[in-house]
Write a structure and sequence with these properties.
By secondary structure, the protein is of the alpha+beta class. The protein is about 30% helix and about 25% strand.
Length: about 240
């Protein structure tokens, strides 16, 4: 899922207990950037952060990262400003939204390490802003306590790691119809880079795979990998197993 000049936009803490989640808003933001002719959508990933009573969060403490291909002449600053305007308008009342933006190729190892720490440690805004300054990452708090900057920066780092989370949006996965598909069809329809079990077993060419309507490829090896289960015939892995990643 790499495009020359691709840009990552991390968002977090955009919701409240009664509003749609950050993943929904991530998809709406992809549409907005496309409609404004600023960037073409390539994908959006969900990243699970530490769940701890010391961390305020709405439901699961997950953040989202958008992957886009900027239009000719559109820079990181313009994408940041458009996304910030969108989040100010559409983040839920009482939320604490944060936004991080960087060209994918420029995301530093320090940002990746920050995201990996956010999965196991309680981090704070000061560290997030200091990390962003040192690495040239655009990072903005857009309301409330602005705690969303922690998850937003983490999302950029975790997506850039190439091995975290799952795709909450990818061309073809939303509204995918349940059924039995030949493995070659799944590669084509879902734009997969791989399809395998956790142990690395892959179905042979022509194999029929039972597909659940909830299809979310993992973000592995910097691309969409469909997790499969071969315990009793080939099928997509259960939702609970996918969400653990």
């Amino acid at each position: 899922m790499t495009s020359p000049g691709a840009v990552l936009l991390g968002i977090d803490d955009t919701d409240n207990e009664s509003s749609p989640g950050t993943g929904y808003l991530a998809q709406q933001l992809l549409q907005e950037l496309d409609a404004l002719d600023l960037a073409a959508p390539l994908g959006a990933t969900r990243h699970q952060l530490l769940v701890d009573p010391r961390i305020p969060y709405t439901s699961h403490n997950s953040s989202a990262c958008l992957l886009v291909a900027p239009a000719d002449g559109v820079g990181v600053d313009a994408l940041h400003d458009a996304a910030a305007d969108f989040l100010r308008r559409y983040s839920a009342p009482g939320s604490d939204p944060g936004l991080a933006v960087a060209r994918k190729a420029d995301v530093a190892d320090e940002v990746v390490a920050f995201g990996q720490r956010a999965k196991v440690d309680v981090l704070d805004q000061d560290l997030a802003h200091a990390t962003a300054r040192r690495t040239g990452t655009l990072l903005s708090g857009l309301g409330g306590t602005e705690d969303g900057v922690i998850g937003a920066l983490s999302a950029v780092g975790l997506h850039r790691s190439g091995a975290d989370g799952f795709y909450l949006w990818l061309d073809g996965i939303r509204g995918f119809r349940a059924g039995r598909y030949r493995i070659e069809e799944l590669y084509r329809l879902l734009h997969l880079s791989d399809a395998r079990t956790l142990a690395g077993t892959r179905p042979a060419e022509g194999t029929l795979v039972d597909v659940d309507p909830w299809v979310r490829p993992l973000h592995l090896e910097d691309g969409p990998v469909l997790l499969l289960d071969d315990a009793s015939g080939w099928r997509t892995a259960p939702k609970a197993e996918v969400r653990r990643h």
